[in-house]
């Protein structure tokens, strides 16, 4: 028995040492900021925030190496600007820095919306004294997030409609499990090796299978002609663009008001302000999936795309009326989607590094335009 016990202990110790060596090697090869899951804390105003320095994030808790004293461009947004589905260096703010030669600070966090964008602009962005602030406006959930913030955070109580008494649930990816992190969460926060496995293609496939098992609709599209292989979640996206839901329509008005306030605040501080309208994945592939009855839940897909088209038109009209500079990256992404893989080959609604490159190129082209054009 003693010999058996010694052998078991020896094996366990060897495995532990091997894992430590593998973890060290992984940290040398890969940037921890791309793999370690940061610690999320509750916040009375922002709803939640990243613990400074956790997950290799900077001292403000954002996806940068450090916090600069000054910067030329600040990008504020949600997961679409943070750069989910890509390495930090491949997010559109990072690629914009490489393309434009201007310093860019990424002040974004998954799950944030226009309410948080305004707060971050006041509390953080202005301190960096930028020439330009770019707000990423994701049509897929920024309306829902605006409603959730206003009707759950006391600081926005003055913006509430007395006739609305309920609030949409906060289902943002970083708001879950804050109080009781699982073993998986703890490993994700401390092991690059674990994240390499769990965030790999294998991990994505497992997550997609779990979603399907829970009853979520994941519609796959494969087109050899265009080299497209990807999936869609129309049910999830429609929840944020359901124009028959009064909470969504209220969220639209609130989101537009927040961007108007951001534009005014930027003007008062002699800072240029630009909104980047980011479409849903479904709208990017509308030419291939709209009216395509061979796809499951095609009616829901058509309704989603139709609603987003109406909202996009309303947003652009509002921005024009209030003198808010904007660019819509939908046409560029639609064109790019027919030439290369710009989304992961799964349910993910965030572009990959190719899609982020296209967004950065579109913004950089705007930056090159003569003033007043």
Walk me through the structure.
The chain is of the alpha/beta class and 373 residues long. It has one domain: SGNH hydrolase (Rossmann fold, 3-Layer(aba) Sandwich), CATH 3.40.50.1110. It is built from 15 helices and 9 strands. It has helices at 2-29, 79-82, 92-100, 114-123, 142-150, 183-190, 192-198, 201-213, 234-239, 246-268, 281-284, 286-289, 298-321, 330-337, 353-368; strands at residues 40-43, 47-50, 73-77, 104-108, 132-138, 219-223, 228-232, 272-278, 326-328. The strands form 3 sheets. A 5-stranded parallel β-sheet has the order 4-3-5-8-9, sandwiched between helices. The chain has a two-stranded antiparallel sheet with strand order 1-2. A hairpin with a 4-residue loop joins strand 6 and strand 7 (228-232). Helix 3 (92-100) packs across helix 15, helix 4 (114-123) runs parallel beside helix 10 (246-268) and helix 6 (183-190) crosses helix 7 (192-198).
Count of individual beta strands: 9
**Total individual domains:** 1
CATH domain class name:
Alpha Beta
Enumerate how many helices there are, as a single number: 15
Which range best describes the helical content: under 10%, 10-25%, 25-40%, 40-55%, 55-70% or over 70%?
A: 40-55%
CATH topology: Rossmann fold
Detail the poorly predicted runs.
172-176
User: What is the overall pLDDT average?
Assistant: 86
Strand order of the largest sheet: 4-3-5-8-9
Overall geometry: globular
Q: Please describe the biggest sheet, giving its number of strands, its sense, and whether it closes into a barrel.
A: 5 strands, parallel
State the assembly state of the protein chains. single chain
Q: In percent, how much strand structure appears in the residues?
A: 5-15%
Q: In CATH terms, what is the architecture?
A: 3-Layer(aba) Sandwich
Give the N-terminus to C-terminus distance in angstroms: 83 Å
